[in-house]
Recover the amino acids of this structure.
C-alpha cells in the first residue's frame, strides 16, 4: 500500500542535484512543513526526491533555502539508527515563491534622480520623465 501526499513548506537547505552511476539525475530537497497548535509550533521535515530530466531541469533553476514549494508524490518512512525519517518520492513539484521573490516584490528599484541633463540624470531618463523638467516645476 502506498500513501499519496502533498507537502507544502519551505526548503530547509539548498537542493542537491546528483547523478546515479547510470547518469540519471536525482534532486533531493529538505522541506519544512510547519503548523501551529494551541500550545506550540510544529515542524515536520520531509526529504523529497525528484528523478530524471525534470530533476535536472529543476536543479538548474537556482532554488535556495527558504523558497516555498509544494511537492506531491508517494510518502514513505525510512528507519536509520533508531530514527524514523519521512520521505517523499515526487511526481510533481510546484514553485510557490521564495525569499528572492518576496524581496523583489517589497523593494522597488530606487527611482532615478530627477534633474536637468548634466546634473546626474541620464539622457534616457530625462527624455522619459514627463512634463516636469526639474524639481522646481513639480506641483508640490
Amino acid at each position: 500500500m502506498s500513501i499519496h501526499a502533498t507537502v507544502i513548506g519551505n526548503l530547509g537547505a539548498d537542493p542537491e542535484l546528483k547523478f546515479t552511476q547510470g547518469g540519471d539525475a536525482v534532486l533531493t530537497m529538505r522541506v519544512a512543513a510547519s503548523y501551529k497548535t494551541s500550545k506550540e509550533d510544529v515542524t515536520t521535515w520531509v526529504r523529497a526526491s525528484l528523478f530524471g530530466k525534470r530533476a535536472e531541469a529543476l536543479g538548474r533553476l537556482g532554488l535556495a533555502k527558504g523558497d516555498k514549494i509544494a511537492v506531491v508524490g508517494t510518502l514513505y518512512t525510512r528507519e536509520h539508527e533508531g530514527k524514523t525519517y519521512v520521505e517523499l518520492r515526487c511526481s510533481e513539484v510546484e514553485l510557490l515563491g521564495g525569499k528572492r521573490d518576496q524581496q523583489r516584490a517589497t523593494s522597488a528599484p530606487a527611482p532615478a534622480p530627477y534633474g536637468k541633463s548634466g546634473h546626474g540624470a541620464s539622457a534616457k531618463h530625462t527624455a522619459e520623465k514627463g512634463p516636469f523638467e526639474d524639481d522646481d516645476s513639480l506641483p508640490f
Observations:
- The mean pLDDT is 77.
- DSSP finds three helices and six strands in the chain.
- Strands lie at 3-11, 16-19, 25-36, 41-51, 68-80, 83-97.
- The first helix runs from residue 53 to 59.
